[in-house]
Amino acid sequence: MAAAKRRISILGSTGSIGVSTLDVIEQLGGRDAFEVLAITGSSNIPLLAEQARASGARLAVLEPTPRGPRDPNPLNCLGIATYQEECQFSSSAGPFWLEQDLRALDVLHENMWSIDLDRMICPALPSCDAVIDGVVVHLDDAHLTRRFALTLAQPIGDELRVVGALDP
């Protein structure tokens, strides 16, 4: 009797850790040993699509998230500000061209979902807070802090289930 396949979903599969994870899965038996349920990414869509094809995964694209200012970046701002509100920044409340393109692809492809995280990261969009529920949001202009990213795991999983990218 064959051993049951291990089921896995990979958030951020196009990043260095995600690419390494997929390499390890391949070394440990690939599709014979693992069922890759879903993969996600946000910027390298061609690599994400290739990973989905190679692994048999459903494809979920995490749309680009609001970015903080470069100078001072949000984390540095908190180090010098008197009040955390001084470190708020504004972001567009509407989708930009890449998000619009991803949403159009979502409509065309049955196993692709475009997931908008803007309101999870900036609940008061277009205003983005530097701290939410006592947790610093941005590490720098383009990256979330690890602690804040961990708070998103459950809501992202819930959203992936709602759209059908993950089983309930």
Layout of SSEs?
Elements: E1 6-10, H1 16-27, E2 34-41, H2 45-55, E3 58-62, H3 74-80, E4 89-90, H4 97-108, E5 112-115, H5 118-121, E6 127-128, E7 131-132, E8 135-136, H6 146-151, H7 153-163
Explain this structure.
- With 168 residues, the protein is of the alpha/beta class.
- Helices cover 38% and strands 18% of the residues.
- The strands form 3 sheets. A 4-stranded parallel β-sheet has the order 1-2-3-5, sandwiched between helices.
- Strand 2 (34-41), helix 2 (45-55) and strand 3 (58-62) form a beta-alpha-beta unit.
- The protein is elongated, with a radius of gyration of 18 Å.
Oligomer: single chain
Termini gap: 27 Å
- Strand arrangement across the biggest beta sheet: 1-2-3-5
Low-confidence stretches: none
Structural class category: alpha/beta
The number of helical elements comes to 7
- Tell me the total number of β-strands: 8
Mean pLDDT: 87
Query: How much strand content do the residues show?
Result: 15-25%
Shape: elongated
Major beta-sheet overview: 4 strands, parallel
Element-level helix/strand string = EHEHEHEHEHEEEHH
Q: Percent helix among the residues?
A: 25-40%
Backbone CA Rg: 18 Å
